Amino acid sequence: QVQLVESGGGLVQPGGSLRLSCAASGIIFSINTMGWYRQAPGKQRELVASITGGGSTNYADSVKGRFTISRDNAKRTVYLQMNSLKPEDTAVYYCNSMSNALRGGPWGQGTRVTVSS
């Protein structure tokens, strides 16, 4: 059973930074492409960044140049460094393996990010 525990969210002013972490278990972490997703109020969950087991990354256009995804396979953890945060980045952030996400879950509890002055 996949278990995902996200942390690191909070309230930050526009232009600020946060680093999210996600500890994963129940999957062969090192070979799974992992993704960070977010769901803003009233909107569908969207993929914002992904990283393959080998470290190749992709980003949504809306976060490119501001967010950086990374992973530590030994710690079974994936990170999302978020800089130059904007109010439109406000959402609950989730991580998941992309294959698990395509199957519809399960999902962790997420971590809430609020960007506001």
Overall description:
It is built from 1 helix and 10 strands. The longest helix has 5 residues, at 98-102. The protein has one helix at residues 98-102, and strands spanning 3-7, 10-12, 18-25, 34-39, 46-51, 57-59, 67-72, 77-82, 91-97, 111-115. With 117 residues, it is mainly β. The strands form 2 sheets. It has a 6-stranded mixed beta sheet. A 4-stranded antiparallel beta sheet has the order 1-3-8-7, with no helix packed on it.
Brief descriptors of the model:
10 strands; four-stranded antiparallel sheet; mainly beta; 1 helix; 117 residues
Poorly predicted regions are: none
The end-to-end span amounts to 40 Å
How many DSSP E strands? 10
Largest sheet: 6 strands, mixed
Helix content: under 10%
Shape: globular
What is the gist of this entry?
It contains one helix and ten strands.
What is the element layout, followed by pairings?
Blueprint: E1 3-7, E2 10-12, E3 18-25, E4 34-39, E5 46-51, E6 57-59, E7 67-72, E8 77-82, E9 91-97, H1 98-102, E10 111-115
Parallel strand pairs: 2-10
Antiparallel strand pairs: 1-3, 3-8, 4-5, 4-9, 5-6, 7-8, 9-10
